[in-house]
Amino acid sequence: MNVAAILKVKSRNVVTTTADKSLLDVAKLIDRHDIGCIVIEGDDGQIAGVVSERDLVCAIGIASMPSRRGPFVCAGLTLPAA
Predict the structure, then answer these.
(1) Under 8 Å between Cβ of 71 and 81
(2) What is the CATH number for 51?
(3) How confident is the model at residue 29, as a pLDDT?
(4) Which of these, 18, 80, 28, lies nearest to 53 by C-alpha position?
């Protein structure tokens, strides 16, 4: 299945990016579009995979394992509506 086929079926736009982007770039796209995952498009226009919010959290956990410190919860905390 390719991205064009998904767009024909999906009622909303599907946000995509390419595998050469950083995880930070992907996180910014997910945040900007208020979505839970993003489709990764291969050079051939086919779906190479997806990156989810969970994937990002796991990558952060793995990357920070040696130090066991920061970033702290308060840096990414969503505050309740007033």
Answers:
(1) no
(2) 3.10.580.10
(3) 94
(4) 28
Closest C-alpha among 24, 55, 45, 34 to residue 15 = 34
Residue 18's SS3 state is strand
* Residue 80 located in a structural domain: no
Q: What is the pLDDT of residues 15-72, one digit of tens each?
A: 899 989 998 999 999 999 988 888 888 888 888 888 889 888 888 776 666 555 555 5
**Tokens 């498009």 found at:** 41
Question: DSSP string spanning 35-62?
Answer: -SEEEEEPTTSBEEEEEEHHHHHHHHHH
DSSP state of 74: G
In this prediction the pTM is: 0.66
Residue 11 falls inside a structural domain: yes
Q: Peptide bond before 66: cis, by omega within 30 degrees of 0? A: no
